[in-house]
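hiii, so i know i said id send this last week but things got crazy w the move. better late than never?? heres the sequnce for the chain we talked about at the cafe, plus the structure i predicted for it. fair warning i was half asleep when i ran it
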Amino acid sequence: MMTTRPLDARVKRIHDTVERDDGARALVDRLRAVARAGRLALLTAAKDLPHGHARVLVDVLKSP
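okay and structure toks below
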C-alpha cells in the first residue's frame, strides 16, 4: 500500500514581493547588467521567434 505525503511545493504569485535571493530574479538582473554594458546574444532553436521564450526575455530585459 502506498502512502501519500503532502506535496512540498512553494507557489509564487505575480503579486508577491520580490525576494532578492530569487534565482530567476538574480539571473534576469545579471543579464540586464550585461546587456547594458554591451551586447548580449540570445540563442534559440525556436521556429516561432515572435512568440518564443527568447522574445519574452528580450522584452523583460528592455523593461525598466
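btw The chain is about 40% helix and 0% strand. thought thatd interest u
miss u guys!!
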